[in-house]
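Render this sequence as a predicted structure.
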Amino acid sequence: MIKLIAVLCRIAAPFDCHDEMVTNNTSMLACTMAMRDLPEWAKQFPAYHLSHWKCQIGEKANSI
């Protein structure tokens, strides 16, 4: 299982970040292709900025 994970940080507190799963149960190619849509996806979280993202293998997202 491969997930696309976006790391969002609060604008008011830049070191207060959390992982947000964007896609689940996908291939590595689909995960990397989905990255191009992240800026648009992140607009649904106006109090946060998109710090970085990762394609992660496994069951659970790791905290940063």
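Summary. Residues 2-57 form one domain. The mean pLDDT is 87.
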